[in-house]
Design a protein that fits this description.
74% helix; mainly alpha; elongated
Length: 136
C-alpha cells in the first residue's frame, strides 16, 4: 500500500500540468523559517521575551540564539537594548512624548528600567537629554 501511495505521488508530481502541487510539496519539505533579521527589526519595540522571539522565528531558543549570533555577532539581549535605546533617542529628539511614553514605545519593561539603562549608556537621564535636544 505504501509503495502504491509513493507511486501515486511521483505520478502526480511528474505531470507537467501540476506545477502548483509540486511547489507546494517542495515548500513543505524545505520548512522555510522566517528570517531572524526580519522578525527582530519588525518587532524590537515590543516587550517580548527571547522565547517569544524564538517562537516568532519558528526556532527553539537555543537555535534562535545561535542563528541570532550568526546574523548580528552579538547576543539578542545586548542587541535589543542597543536597538531600543537608539529608537528611544530618536523619539526623544523628534517628538514631545513624555519619558514614560518613550520607554513603553521603545519596548522597555518600565520607565525606571529605561531611565537606568539610558543613563548608563549616555551619561544623562532621558528627560535631560530631551530638554537638551529641544534647546538646540
Amino acid at each position: 500500500m505504501e509503495i502504491k501511495f509513493q507511486e501515486l505521488l511521483v505520478n502526480i508530481l511528474s505531470l507537467p500540468y501540476n506545477p502548483d502541487i509540486g511547489s507546494y510539496f517542495k515548500q513543505i519539505a524545505q520548512e522555510v523559517k522566517p528570517s531572524v533579521k526580519n522578525i527582530m527589526e519588525s518587532n524590537f519595540v515590543y516587550n517580548l521575551s527571547l522565547e517569544e522571539f524564538a517562537r516568532l522565528t519558528h526556532r527553539s531558543l537555543s537555535t534562535f540564539n545561535r542563528d541570532f549570533y550568526s546574523a548580528y555577532e552579538t547576543s539578542p539581549g545586548k542587541w535589543l537594548t542597543k536597538k531600543r535605546l537608539l529608537h528611544a533617542k530618536r523619539l526623544l529628539e523628534n517628538t514631545n512624548q513624555k519619558v514614560y511614553e518613550v520607554a513603553f514605545d521603545s519596548g522597555f519593561e518600565s520607565p525606571a528600567h529605561f531611565a537606568r539603562v539610558f543613563k548608563n549608556e549616555n551619561g544623562i537621564t532621558p528627560l535631560k537629554y530631551q530638554k537638551a535636544q529641544l534647546s538646540v
